[in-house]
Design goal:
The complex is a heterodimer of chains A (about 350) and B (about 425).
Chain A: H1 31-34, H2 40-43, H3 57-90, H4 108-115, H5 117-120, H6 123-148, H7 154-166, H8 169-179, H9 185-192, H10 209-235, H11 238-246, H12 251-279, H13 283-288, H14 298-307, H15 312-336
Helix pairs in contact in A: 4-15, 6-10, 6-12, 7-10, 10-12, 12-15, 14-15
Chain B: H1 2-27, E1 40-46, H2 49-53, H3 56-67, E2 71-77, H4 81-90, E3 96-98, H5 108-111, E4 112-113, E5 130-132, E6 135-140, E7 143-151, H6 152-157, H7 167-179, E8 183-186, H8 196-207, H9 228-241, H10 254-263, E9 266-272, H11 275-281, E10 289-292, E11 303-308, E12 311-315, H12 321-333, H13 337-340, H14 355-363, E13 366-369, H15 375-384, H16 392-399, H17 403-421
Parallel strand pairs in B: 1-2, 8-9, 11-13
Antiparallel strand pairs in B: 3-12, 4-12, 5-6, 6-12, 7-9, 7-10, 7-11
Helix pairs in contact in B: 8-9, 15-17, 16-17
The chains are: A mainly alpha (about 350), B alpha+beta (about 425).
């Protein structure tokens, strides 16, 4: 006798307003079969008990899914999708951020971005974040490999190394601001190491400043990459390694032929995050140098255009252009690294 | 089956609309009730986060509530105007507002109620600052004059007995201060806004004309060593090139530099009278803090320009317009805020009790009244993306490889914007 053959007991009879499945977990959906023949005579139901039962199982499922999705979807539409379409619309106007009127200017804003070297040239300053991001990934991967091996107190090291990522980003920037001061911590350290000839104005020297900032980004975000690598390493099946060691593979061979190929998709994801982060560098120059001319990035310029020069139309167009550039760069990267996932 | 799923979707969508409707209904304002009675709760916008921290705002609210029983004052502070701007876009903003810098004159009636019925029009300075078509929409909370705030102890230590009267004397004093191991003048490059006086006020002082900046729209190359604008920026650059600014001048910190000035490790800052109480608050004895007009020329006739601080305005959609207006009037007449802030009272005949301002007056040849930037100038600056008002232009000049290179870049952008706007 299957679960559905049992007569409906009052216990699992669906109540009004609770259109839920009635059979025990794991059994076949039986309410579908029951509901078409369900009527007042069969059920001896009290008034108001049966309304929901005229909904089929599928409908109930749909209602359930939709009602669960309602809040996240409403939030997504309100804060992401609607603003995105507004952004596209603004990018074709000369809106000043306040006025109730929007003047349509066509592609004028887009043309301006590419004509103005001060706006577009800022991508040169993003380059240091890009290089920093690559180094950051290599460093994070090495640390993850070390932490995945059997070393003493490895949980302690994992925790310590993850701390920079948990710290408040603005606080981190302030800490480094003090380190980079004239005669600050970094200069004192260099003095003690007998390297005082390397001292410079870390935030004042135009040739150095973007690297100083990129280092902050490196220090703050490598733990994030590291944790992702570590999680991936721990999920690799051990039998492959056993097989490799039985075949007499050296540690380097295991790393090169087993670990790295298996990590390929994770490396790609990390690089994707890093590259888009480099193109969108914002908070560090914004807080540390107030995005002064030699440190302005494309995104700080966008902010400036919107909130200093009150040209929200142009700023919206810049946001769209940045989006397209990120998309193109990531596509190139995927293409270079071979987009398809290779089974090891 | 598909139909049923879509039915579910429709039901969900209907629910969304209902939820949305509730939000809309909540935000719709009810304008009908009690407009003329001085009662009810008003929200007041202020930039003075420091006064929220030290309890002064609360004290003002209590005093006002005592005078007008049945009222309640809630303060809203802000650090960044963009948050307030977002509120204005949404249509729901504080009852007592401050006129944001990017609101053009013709937009004033869109957002604010006229304040002429306060009966203050003939009693205040700078009445026309935020007026449109003969109606006053904004009244300055107090007035400021720009000049150099300095530490008298630092001057004495460098052997300087009185503030410089000419530009050459100013340069000599800078050299003396540097020799004495004191930072002659703090530029506050990183914070950018303290640089705005060099690009936006000093040119007027050099020209001895409060309307000089508005004439820039006529020029195709306003940045040159022949124009007051260019000369002002050249003075700033000269200070940097001679090492008279902070040693690490591209890595500065406003809070820190106030302390340096208060301690006499730095001697001067080109700001306004409003900075005097802040330096005193950072530990300098009041008798050691001085204030003099910028010696913009070598003829010894130094002018000062009196301009407004933030201007009060009243939200025209406010439920309690009468209360909001009463609060503005109370702040101007009875609160004593101008003196607390170290500013010049906006009400004619009200005396300032700040000794530094009296000292400043004696050294000033003439005080001119500021002229607001024309909408034409603002539009041109925005189109050229040259931040004269906010100090960004000074940053560009200080950071450029040479003065001439900076001028060339700025003039180019200026000319392009002019042709774009068809000026």
């Amino acid at each position: 006798m299957g679960a559905c053959d049992t007569p409906q007991s009052p216990m699992n009879r669906p109540q009004a307003g609770h259109p839920v499945r009635v059979q025990p977990v794991g059994g076949p959906p039986c309410i579908q079969r029951v509901s078409p023949v369900w009527d007042d005579t069969l059920s001896e139901a009290k008034e108001g008990d049966v309304v929901s039962l005229h909904w089929s199982y599928r409908t109930q499922k749909a209602v359930l899914i939709i009602s669960f999705l309602l809040i996240p979807l409403a939030l997504l539409v309100t804060f992401s999708i609607y603003p995105f379409f507004k952004l596209i619309y603004y990018s074709f106007t000369s809106w000043d951020g306040l006025s109730p009127t929007f003047t349509w200017v066509g592609f004028n804003n887009y043309v301006q971005i590419f004509k103005n070297p001060a706006l577009f040239g800022a991508f040169a300053h993003n380059f240091s974040y890009f290089v920093g991001g690559i180094v950051q990934n290599i460093f994070a991967l090495i640390l993850a490999l070390v932490l995945n091996s059997r070393i003493r107190a490895r949980n302690l090291f994992r925790t310590i190394l993850f701390v920079p990522y948990i710290l408040n980003s603005v606080a981190v920037v302030y800490i480094f601001k003090f380190m980079y001061l004239d005669n600050g911590a970094l200069d004192i350290l260099l003095n003690h190491l007998g390297l005082s000839h390397l001292e410079t104005s870390w935030l004042g020297n135009d040739a150095v400043v973007n690297w100083s900032l990129a280092f902050v980004s490196f220090w703050q975000y490598f733990p994030f990459n590291m944790v992702i690598y570590l999680a991936a390493l721990q999920s690799l099946p051990q039998d492959m390694y056993e097989a490799a060691s039985l075949d007499g593979a050296s540690r380097w061979q295991t790393l090169w032929f087993i670990t790295l190929p298996n990590l390929k998709s994770i490396i790609q994801i990390n690089l994707l995050l890093t590259v888009s982060g480099a193109l969108e560098a914002f908070n560090i120059p914004f807080v540390m140098t107030n995005a002064s001319p030699p440190t302005a990035t494309f995104l700080t310029n966008t902010m400036n255009v919107a909130f200093t020069f009150h040209n929200f139309g142009l700023a919206s167009a810049m946001a769209i252009v940045l989006l397209i550039i990120v998309f193109i760069v990531i596509s190139i990267q995927q293409w270079l690294l071979g987009g398809r996932r290779e089974a090891a | 089956m598909k139909n049923k799923v879509w039915g579910g979707v429709a039901a969900g969508a209907a629910a969304l609309v209902v939820v949305g409707g509730v939000f809309v209904a909540q935000t719709t304002r009810n304008n009908a009730s009690a407009k003329d009675a001085i009662t009810g709760t008003i929200t007041v916008l202020t930039n003075r986060t420091d006064m929220q921290a030290n309890g002064m705002l609360k004290k003002y609210a209590q005093e006002f509530e005592k005078k007008y029983p049945g009222t309640h004052v809630q303060w809203q502070t802000f650090v960044d105007t963009s948050t307030v701007q977002a509120q204005m876009n949404g249509g729901v903003y504080p009852d007592v507002m401050l006129v944001l810098p990017n609101i053009t004159r013709d937009q004033l009636p869109t957002y604010f109620a006229p304040l002429d019925d306060l009966g203050l029009d003939n009693k205040i300075y700078l009445k026309d600052w935020d007026s449109y078509q003969g109606k006053v929409y904004g009244i300055p909370s107090f007035a400021n004059v720009n000049g150099i705030v300095y530490n008298k102890a630092a001057f004495r230590k460098a052997g300087i007995t009185q503030p410089p009267k000419t530009l050459n004397e100013f340069y000599q004093d800078c050299a003396k201060l540097k020799k004495a191991g004191i930072i002659p003048i703090e530029m506050n490059y990183t914070d950018k806004w303290p640089l705005s006086n060099w690009s936006n006020s000093l040119p007027d002082l050099i020209a001895k004309d409060a309307n000089y900046m508005n004439t820039l729209v006529k020029s195709n190359a306003p940045f040159s060593t022949n124009t007051p604008e260019g000369q002002a920026l050249a003075i700033a650059r000269k200070i940097i090139e001679n090492g008279w600014a902070e040693k690490d001048w591209k890595n500065t910190n406003w809070a820190n530099s106030k302390v340096l000035l208060a301690k006499g490790k730095a001697a001067m800052m080109f700001l306004g009278n409003w900075a005097v109480p802040q330096i005193i608050a950072d530990g300098a004895p009041s008798k050691d803090v001085g204030f003099f007009p910028f010696p913009a020329s070598n003829d010894g006739k130094n002018v000062a320009i009196m301009g407004p601080d933030w201007c009060y305005a009243v939200n025209k959609h406010s439920k309690h317009i009468a209360t909001a207006k009463a609060f503005v009037k109370w702040m101007l007449l009875d609160s004593g805020f101008a003196n607390y802030a170290g500013g010049i009272p906006i009400i004619k005949g009200q005396k300032s009790n700040v000794p530094q301002l009296a000292e400043f007056q004696k050294l000033t040849w003439k005080t001119l009244t500021a002229v607001p930037d024309s909408d034409k100038l603002t539009k041109l600056e925005n189109a050229a993306q040259i931040d004269i008002t906010g100090g960004g232009a000074t940053q560009t000049v200080l950071n450029a490889p040479s003065l001439q290179a900076a001028f060339k870049q700025l003039n180019q952008a200026w000319a392009n914007a002019k042709s774009m706007l068809g000026y």
